[in-house]
Amino acid sequence: MHTDLMRFSEQLAHTTTLDACLAEVQAATDQLGFKTLIYDYAPVPVSHEGALITPSVFKTLNAPTDMHTLWCERGYYQIDPVQQCAARRTTPFVWSFSADTHWNGALTDAHRPVAHYIRDYGLSTGLTVPLHLPDGGFATLTAIVDGTPDGAERQAQHNLGEMLVLAHAFQSRASELLAPAERCCTHIHLTRRERECLQHSAKGLTAKGIAATLNRSQATVNLHLVGAARKLGARNRVEAVVRGLHYRLVEI
Fold it and tell me: Which interval of the chain is the signal sequence (predicted)?
């Protein structure tokens, strides 16, 4: 199979939902011998401290039903060595949790829950395409091989190029289909007033100036700014603005 980027992109252009778009990709990856497809997207990939942020979109096809809960609610995403590796790479890579592979040597006790889960469900070998997006967002498309460990890694390596084309064509359309809420960082939740005050602060207004602009008391504005700083883990207003920019909660 040799995927034509333009033709496949035109095919995806007719899809109207992210699920339908991903189903088209699965139909293509099925022909390559992959059984499971996983896609995740985060408008901001890491926290201000550098830790992976739980994605706002995490979709699976032909995967265990509890995978979403474990990865998005139980912290497995942060300790997933595949995701940790993808965040540091710009090229697709093949990985395996089989006992006789070099990957096994890089695993630590912190990765143990993920490694056991992957092996227990027969998801031991896959191919991941990291997608570092122009707006600063981050996504990965992962396809997991349907086959025995002995031939699975070779099969995945053979399809690196195909998956690269499929992933970029998919993400191009997915970026158009993402819902507004999915484009927002959910790692930090500020109220509308907190964001508004922080936005004006980012533009250089003092608390007095913000109060005059919003027709609120200076004490109220300070309360909102302190609340925003606390939620952002900032020690002062300047740091709150910097962190707000990092999480795309404010713009300048």
Answer: none
176 plus 212 within the same structural domain = no
How distant, in Å, are the alpha carbons of 23, 40, 65 from that of 80?
24, 13, 17
CA dihedral 195, 201, 202, 203 (to 10 degrees): 120
Which amino acid would we find at residue 6?
A: M
Q: Which domain holds residue 235?
A: 192-246
- Are 135 and 242 in a shared domain? no
- 232-249 pLDDT, tens digit each: 999 999 999 999 988 888
Are 137 and 161 contained in the same domain?
Answer: yes
pLDDT (tens digit, 9 = 90+) per residue, 119-171?
A: 999 999 999 999 999 989 999 999 999 766 678 888 899 999 999 999 999 99
DSSP structure class, residue 31: T
Bridge partners, 40 (sequence order): 58, 140
- The enclosing domain of 166 has a CATH number of 3.30.450.80
Residue matched to tokens 């998956």? 163
Nearest to 64 by CA among 141, 118, 124, 125: 118
Which domain CATH number covers 211?
1.10.10.10
Q: What is the pTM of this model?
A: 0.87
Q: Is residue 251 part of a domain?
A: no
Whether the Cβ atoms of residue 6 and residue 45 lie closer than 8 Å to each other:
no
Helix (H, G, I), strand (E, B) or coil at 215: coil
